[in-house]
Queue: 2 jobs
Job 1
Amino acid sequence: MKRRQTFAPMFRGALLVLLAAWAAAAAAQTPGRTTAISGTVVDASTGESLIGASVLCLDRPTAGTTTNAYGTFNLFLEAGCTQVAVRFIGYVTDTLRLPLPAGPVRVELRPITLDLGAAEVVAEGTTALERAARLGSVELRPSEVRAIPQLFGERDVIKAIQLLPGVQATSEGGSGFYVRGGGADQNLVLLDEAPVYNPSHLLGFFSIFNGDAINSAELYKSGIPARYGGRASSVLDVRMKDGNAKKLTAYGGVGLISSRLTIESPVAQGRGSLLVSGRRTYADLFLLLSKEEALRNTDLYFYDLNAKFSYRLNDRHRVFGSFYGGRDDFDFGDSFLLRWGNRTGTVRWNALWSDRLFGNTSVIWSDFAYRLGFGNEEFGFFRDAGIRDVQLKEDLTWYAHPDHTVRGGYQGILHTFTDEVSFAAGSNGTTFDSAPRRMALESALYLEDTWSLAARWKVLAGVRYARFDLVDGPLYRLNAERELDGEVADMPSAADGAHGQGGFEPRVAVEGALTERLGLKLSAERNRQYLHQVSNTSAGNPTDLWMPASNNIAPIVADQISLDLTSGPESGAFTWTLGGYYKQLDDVLEFKSGADVFAPTTLESEVIAGSGEAYGAEVLLRRTAGAVTGWVSYTLSRSFRSFAQVDGGARFPAPSDRIHNTAVVVMWEVSPRAVLSANWVYHTGDPATFPSGFYYLNGRLVPQYTERNAGRFPAYHRLDVGVTLRRGAKPAARAWANGEWNFSVYNAYGRENTYLIDFRESESEPGRIDPVSIALFKWVPSISYDFRF
Amino acid sequence: MTRRLALFFGWTTALLLAGCEQVIELDTQPHEALPSIALRLDAASGMVFGSVTRSVDFYAPANPTPVQNVVVTLTGPDGVAHTVVADLGLVSGEAAPYAEGDRVTAEVEIDGELYRASEVVAPALALDSLEVRPFEGFGFGFPADSVYQIFCHLPSAPVRNLLIEAIVNGEYLTETVQCFKTSGDGPTVVPVLWGRIFEPGDVVDVFVWSLPENSYDFWVTLGAVVDGGGPGSVPGNPLNHWNRPALGHFTLAPASIRSITVP
């Protein structure tokens, strides 16, 4: 298979130039008299780590940093710096006067409350350099997510990011998403560093992320740092809250579809904290009221549970333990069942070894499995499949020099893949096909440097080397027609000679301030993806299959260049962002026509490999201060795929090819008691393959199709509105009564957006075929009450 | 209280799903009329049947039309050509029995243009027996009357690609395309037409065709297209092996046939 080399020479050249320049600059620069400070930034009321807080010298604002994913920072300060500001949106800025006491400093920021008066309720400004650093990524906070009206009233971080430029929902109400023309499986979704292979509940209408348990969510669309890898298009890094280390609190909500409860508590006199958060739907409880026994025996629910423990051993060392478990269960009498679940666990140790060296060591476990069945245990057809990971990860951050922050680390993941199809027929139960368990080791080393090239410019240069080795299970042989060549039992075992492949993934970005207001970021990167999720649908569903790279399956290689600009006043309400990108994809997989997906041992022969191309321009206008906040986003983009076996290799629109994509999000704080919110979304209809004719074949009338995805669904648009009502100035006697009511309507004007199209004989004109659009939802009202103890 | 809850839930659901279907206008690609050549040759008996029609526009009220003046020639490894003439688009005749491994070429002449495809006879899997079992019903109380299912008992054999069809009371059933790949792990029991319901007195002829791999791929794809799509299905014309643009397929396979009457 010929590998494109378009970007490789450019990457190699850029890397050599950067290494030479770095060496020369490092040799030429004299550190002078500098002071290194380090510490953590937390919420004063809860002790929660604040991720992404700015720490900068007020005398030299370009000399600054942000807290990392654990709320920790390190900063070099040159002589002459007398004050350091620590600031975070929604919190009162704290100013530290130098010199500081020796050792790490713990900064507690007070949340901005209404009591502080309107003069202090303003958006924290950011410099052009700070805004440039965030280009290519988006960070969402729970407060922003809560304000957006969503389907079934749930505050879902994935549904919120789908309203941002360059990000699209895969389907109506779905939790899958495309980023810049990539596939739904090309997004690395992490929960406290653990990969989540299917982040959806209720067939995608909810994500697994319980908003009450989430601290932050950051989506990288471009400029993905070298410390991340394994997916071709994006990284969604979700961090759980640590828990309230100051006092015991409980809060939750009751809604039409689900309810949730979260309890946070200090541990060991505030040295640690514990958080437990649970959620469950209860549609199935209404079925218990039915007179039909079969309905009473039907299961229709999901639940999830988040738990986290954190403990501060001393000023320099902290340990954390995170757990997530969730399950979906759909059992319809004796005819159909679909069950799936994710479980993740992370044990992590943060160490501030010195003012210049920070380390994080994590042991991570992740498990996704599903069961799909038709019939019952006596007579039925079942598929059981899953993927399990055990991972060790080490990250070190070395603040080597005022102008160089060096990060490096190692990641090793042991994957285990299982897949079995079975058939039960009374006493004649048979296992149709069971793929022998396969195991693979995915390992990576990375090194990256953030180089402050000048007062207003930074270069982020990194490289990742990733390798994927099959270490157990069969290696399948395919003949020239890509058919299984021989019996599975005779196949060579990977354990006798591990089969592997790997490659470098260079990442480079230049970010800076062109003027006091105008920031820019130019990035180029390569990402490799060794796990393919193969699906015939664009939406993604829990029964999609994860397939490892092997002797027959190459990894996806994605090359992307991106240019983003941002502008806005340092202290002001409006900012705008413009972006453009181009992406090439190699070795994307799809099932071939006529694929037999119910044969685990021959799956490698049932897929075809092709290429993809995507490009686009994005605009985001955002208002972050005042009574009315929100944003307008617009994306103009194209995305294509091509496979030699499809339409003679001609390229066709990919499922993510929605040429125009717009979202308008508005939140209006009418009064301290009431907030009105609305969002309107529009996108070009999805590409689809429609029949153009009919033909007979052995007594059957069969639709005749033309080129793949040559047609389009009607355009999609909808309006969601919501209102949040809070109690007045006089609090109720009971704490739970001081909550807030949320009312919302999803699809307020009842647009019947096409979910699928069925072709039926016309009722008014027999013999004529009519295309019938079937919509999933019309108006979806929701009511919920959020309470707090 | 219980009734109010049920009513509330019911109304919410009704509101949620109210008015969710409508006829719309679609811009479709121009239709290209192609011949559909559907030939079946039973390698065990040498019987040939099928149809040759021409496709029509999707929105046209007319059905696909039979193609006139069609001549079908089948040539085996011995070089002997067997000619079958189609009448009003229907092909029916006899060639010769063929053995495992034999390559047979079909040539179809339509209005002076020649369409050619060839296939190799796959190893045959003989149907052991058929079994009738009472159907226990789905979990929602349907059906209430005594009905039955028929099961094929297949012997132990290496992996085979099968197409299972049925004629019930003289009528060829077309609503389901049942393709089944045996596991090669021993005897197998498979419900006919994926558990279709039969009634007392039904006379059922079950055909089990042992297909070569590419034919099996064609029929699996056809089944997904006809049945509205399923896992692995992508809207598209099933790939065939005609040497010119055409629809349909030349299927060469040995058939194993058994009959049973539902008591």
Job 2
Amino acid sequence: MTDSLRETSMWLPPMELDPGCAARIVGESAAATVAPAVVSSAADRVSPESAGSVAARSSTAESSSPDVAGRLRGALSWASVILKPGHGVMKLMLAALGALLLVALGFDAADLLQRSFASSAALGMVVLVLVAMVTGTALKVALDEIVNLRRIKHIERLRAEADRLAHSVGHGEASAFVEDLLRFYGGRSDLVVSFQALNKSVSDAHNNQEVIQVVERQVLTAIDQRAYRLVLNGARDTAVATALSPSAAIDLAIVFWRNTKMVREIAELYGARPGPIGSISLIRRLIANLAVAGVAEGAHHVAVDALGGSLAAAVSARLGQGVINGLLTARLGVTAMHLCRPVGFSPDHQPSLKRIRSELMSVSKQVL
Amino acid sequence: MTVRWSSLSGLAEAGLRMFDQVGGLLDSSLDSTIRLGVTGLRRSGKTVFITSLVENLLKDAPLPFLDVVVDNRFQAARLVPHPDLSIPRFDFERHLATLTDAEPRWPEETRGVSQIRVAIRYLPGSTVRRAVAPLATLNLDIVDYPGEWLLDLPLLTVGFAEWSRRTLDLARRSPRAELAGPWLEWLNNVSAMSPAGEEEAKTGARLYTDYLLACRRSSFTLSLVQPGRFVEPGDLKGAPLLTFCPIPMPIDVPVPRGSLGELMQERFEAYKTSVVGNFFVKHFSRLDRQIVLVDVLGALNAGPAGMSDMQAALAASLEGFRHGRQNWLSRMFGSRVDRVLFAATKVDHIASNQHNNLRTLLDRLVSDARRNIRFEGATVETMAIAAVKCTETVVTEHQGRKLWCIQGRPVGRDAPTVLFPGEIPDGLEIFPSGVEKPYNFLDFRPPPGVGRDGRGAPNIRIDQALNFLLGDYLA
């Protein structure tokens, strides 16, 4: 009884309403010319889940304006990257050691300055300029690194949000995501066409899930294809170089250099632009996630990998090593694609190692 | 469904079909052809769907969910003459003209069969196929027909006595009983055993036709109207084939020669073989893919009686098809439908946050048919689509509640309006108790300026439907 009462009180009859107070669902084409009224209604709609994206917006705004507080907070967040929980004591020790070193360096520099000024003013000036240059460039590098780390974090945030939306049949939240993505890729001339196509394809009828799918189809598949080509090139280069290189040490150097370069290129393509520290942390995470690359592949592919390597090895040990190194590079590259993509791969768009594999099998022909 | 072979009248037809198939097989080695069955009861929007689909293909519209378009492999599509010249061509241009007119209207009701062929040129996705043919063509055949005729298909499997019994049962129940009055009265005065008279048969058929027409007109929008040619005769207007009606047949004794019952039975059988069987063999027995359009909103408007009637009609009309996975053998012996899409049409008449509820509701309505088709090995999917998108979803405040509304021009009005159309039930209880006529989804006029930008008609999920139906052929 009460149940049905509640039902009828919830239930609203069809009715006509005043067209004056109707607000459009923010379509992507409308996003460019956001009217103030629409903004306020969008802000009203912020749910706890999408609060993260708002925070993201404000944080990107801060990073572009060079105020001290923002930098300080950035530095703190950078420190928190280094000071990850887990090996807490170890981290603390490392941090303390680093601080100690910095202090020691500062004292040394001050000491050096004093001594050079004592010997002659000219020498003092030169040393002062040098110290200033070192400090300045070090600061610049650190700041760049912070910005880049933030971009990587931004990608992760985008991916988490996309993941959530990809499983939601709700409406209206996806447009905020698309705006965020547009802001992230703002200024990329190579993506203008893709975003235009996206604008044309998304309508108010699409739900969150569908918008994410369109984003993947219209914007990301184009990037995926280019990234895939990078992986292909990287894998082939590594394979050929390993097969031809005369010594294991050179091998190692080549593989390391080529892999780092490839990962950096892929990350840049997806908009991550990692600096030296970012690259290292990226590669570390890559190695931890290496298994991701093989998820879409069946067991028989792994067998083919092994067999391919041993077949090539039967022809020549170096060739076999080349093929295996190439496959490893390919795996690394595909994992990098997984980690740098702002929207997780949907099952139909998983990059596959199949083409790379067949390409690598022909390396023996190229080399011999 | 054991219907297929036994119901098709005899070996001759089977042979003819096989001959057709062999010819088709030769054809398909050069170009592939796909026959898309657009199935739907009357007023479910078949004509508009076909028009919008063809228009969107021809105009190279942004169809973000059609793989071949997103991968940039789609070259172009155009209309080509159909090799079967005996069937009128679907009057695409006229239907499009009514839609894109300065005063846009919906196309008129379909009165007869027509068909159209769209040739789609695309680059094959696989390297092997590209090596064989750099540019491939897919011929898409679509048939349009009055939805009423679809309900003739289940007749193929029943005898006259059985059909009469069922129809009479149905007619004596509410809400049909009020509409069937004159005809039922006439039935009281005649007997299947009495000697046949042409006048008598004509009167019966006339009264029965009136009853069927009344069903169609009624506020419940009853869908189960058999035989379809009585209300939509096509080229058979006034033919003696249509002068029969259900009549209570004696159960254990055969009807005597020359009786009214025998006459009716004979005509029913003749109708089955020469009208229904013909129609089925010609248009439905060779389908590759099928989309079943369902006007769920119309059924909700019609109330519980209309809803259950539509469900029964839909279930009956799907029985005759051959579903299952394709292989080369089944290609030889008449194709099977290996993908079926159930689509709730006119989804633009509700706000976009209700689309998913509508889809779920449709899922529930067709769950039996769905299971059957799955069992036979075909893939089934449900979607909520709109062939021509007439409204825009907007949000407005009403008494402190945020309502998702639609903005558009309802049929019969000039000014656009904002309408809260009501919400689609997401629970098991479709019709809330204690509310008189809970649903009233208005019809909307086509938006002005359809296709004026040269990018096809605005639509909702036509591309997803196309990708499900044709995607693998365009791989």
